[in-house]
Every structure is written in C-alpha cells, then in structure tokens.
Amino acid sequence: MRISGVNIPDEKQIGAGLTAVFGIGRNLSHSLLKELNIDPITSINKLAEEDITKIRDAVAKNRIEGDLRSEVQQNIKHKINVQSYQGIRHLKKLPLRGQKTKTNARTKRGKKVTVGSGRKAPAQKT
User: Fold this and answer.
1) Residue (of 99, 116, 117) closest to 108 by Cα position
2) How far, in Å, CA of 68 to CA of 120, rounded?
3) Would you call 24 exposed, middle or buried from its count of C-beta atoms within 10 A (0-12, 13-18, 19+)?
C-alpha cells in the first residue's frame, strides 16, 4: 500500500501502518479509521481496494508529508528571523524547551569533547 509517496508494509495493522506517513500519528490514524468504519487492527493486505481508496482520500484532506515538512521549516526560519528565544536556540543547535544542558542534550550538542590534553605540563625548575 502506498499513501502520498510512502510505502506501508503489508503485514502491519492499518492503525499502526498509517503512522509511517509524516503528520499522521496514532490518534489521527484511529479517528480516520473510525470515521471510515474500518477496524484499526485489520492487516493491510486484507483490506479491499475500495477501503484503500477511502483511506487515501481521507488522508489527502490532511496536511501531510512534503507540505507539512516545508511548513515546519518555514516556521523555524520565521522564529530565527524574528530572533525569538526559540529561534536563537535553533541557531545555536541547543534544546528549545527549557531542558538543562550542563550534563544532558548530547544528541543536540554532539559527542563529548574533553578540554585539555589530559596530562599535566612538566614542572619548571627555578
């Protein structure tokens, strides 16, 4: 099954499989399927062709994949241009939402870098 350029594995349940599309989470997936009267635990390879077209049409009404990604990038650029707190944190590649950075934030800041050579300089004679 393919929805808006994303391949969804056939052996997955439709409720979990739809979350492979950027912009569709568990809640949206289950509410769309409830609206279409499709059981979320149904395997994708057991769906009828008309059910698949219904799902594609319902998903197309939402902002997903490329449109959503470009909108998120525009929002980040706007915050940077306005120089809001979050924009400045984006520029510095630091966490935005108040997390501490003294010991954590390794994924944002990168690998640990030790300051100094690790050995003492030889003592000078006077």
Assistant:
1) 99
2) 53
3) buried
Condensed to tens digits (0 to 9), the pLDDT of residues 68-110 reads 999 999 999 999 999 999 999 999 988 888 888 888 888 877 8
Helix, strand, coil percent content, the chain, rounded in steps of 5:
50, 5, 45
Query: For residue 27, is pLDDT > 80?
Result: yes
Q: Return all residues near 47 (Cβ < 8 A) that are at least 6 apart.
A: 1, 14, 38, 55
Rounded to whole angstroms, the maximal C-alpha distance in the chain is 91
Predicted TM-score (pTM) of the model is 0.69
How far, in Å, CA of 60 to CA of 23, rounded? 11
Tell me the three state secondary structure of residue 31. helix
108 token code pair:
């944002």
SS3 state of residue 95: coil
